[in-house]
Description:
It is a single chain. By secondary structure, the protein is an alpha/beta fold. The chain has a single domain (18-317, 328-339, 348-364), classed as Rossmann fold, CATH 3.40.50.1780. The chain has helices at residues 18-25, 57-67, 75-95, 110-119, 133-149, 166-171, 191-200, 222-225, 232-246, 285-296, 329-341, 352-362, 368-374; strands at 31-36, 71-74, 104-105, 156-162, 187-190, 264-271, 275-283, 304-308. The strands form 2 sheets. The chain has a 4-stranded parallel sheet with strand order 2-1-4-5, sandwiched between helices. It starts with 17 loop residues before the first helix and ends in a 13-residue tail after the last helix. Iron/sulfur cluster binds at residues 109, 111, 163-164, 166, 308-310, 313-314, 317. Iron/sulfur cluster (SF4) is lined by residues 109, 111, 163-164, 166, 308-310, 313-314, 317.
Amino acid sequence: GQCVTHCPTGALTVRDDTGRVLKALADPELTTVIQVAPAVRVAWAESFGLSPEVGTAGRMVAALKRMGFNYVFDTNFTADLTIMEEGSEFLERFTHRDGYSWPMYTSCCPGWVRFLKSQFPGQVAGLSTAKSPQQMFGAVAKSYLAQKLGLDPHKIFVVSIMPCSAKKAECALPSMKDACGDPDVDVVLTTREMDRLLRSDCVLPGDLPEEKFDSPLGTGTGAAVIFGATGGVMDAALRSAYYLVTGSNPDADAFTAVRGSKPWKEAVFTVPGAGDVKVAVVSGLGNARALVEAVEAGEVSYDFVEVMACPGGCAGGGGQPIHGGVELAEPRGKRLWELDAKADIRFSHENPEVQALYAEYLGQPLGEKSHHLLHTDHEAWRMPSQR
Ligand code: SF4
């Protein structure tokens, strides 16, 4: 259910879905599967007063296992999958330019998708059709994972931990359901709600030994963890697009021009065999508005644009712990880039579990199964103002 917190007059409510998760955990019929978004791992421990050295992703996994989730997986896995689909989609559009709307926009931020639909409906055709990593995860859990584990997909309950309240609306969209009408994702909790959930069960994460994410949806590369910081999706997509065109990897740090906290970044990269790719990265909806207005006025022209609604990207998302008067998007984002720099694998196309998913189940990026499970039609639902 929902409860009222924080506001002394009751005029403002904070939605709280932890009760729905506790109910699912207590249901012996259900297999509970939880995924944790990239940006959550660098913020969740703030509420417990733990330093980044203690408040690691491994302790978060251990704490969630204590809560009783059957499988604790990583949205980084489907961030890599998103790159495979979205990077392939970009190359398909880039090499068959006519008939597509330009630029191509990223589609993983539901705040941005909603903003574009309501403010610039003429630009919606530019959105990538790739579902966000959260939605791809739910779709893969209720198909591939169900088949692999011999489970009834209707009895799999998918919980997401997201840095974001807009993800709750995204998972409720009519276009984010399977053929039976089951949602890809059953409940979204924000980072703050996850922290409350752990407290409600008296879990003390700081005292737990670190544990690993479960397999087969628990492996993510350095290219995936940077989805949580502004510029990260573009950086990851360019790394794999380069590989897909040339057959060899670029330097993993070849695209640093899209990183950093500047609210509107532009760069041109040469991909041998494909040509010059003009990209832009913006975060914050004021900057997004300025960029789309400039696109519509013909003042700028890009091939690929990454947009995140929250300034600094998901690291500073609306569901993250709040500290009065302090903005933490930048230091949290910096820690995500550090995780990428020290990752063993830094290219989404080298994620062994994603490779296995294609080999065993999906076939190839943009194939028929991918089309049904991993892509969406942004025109299939209407904004309240458009009804
Ligand atoms: Fe959610 Fe903000 Fe991230 Fe967009 S940028 S997905 S609104 S947290």
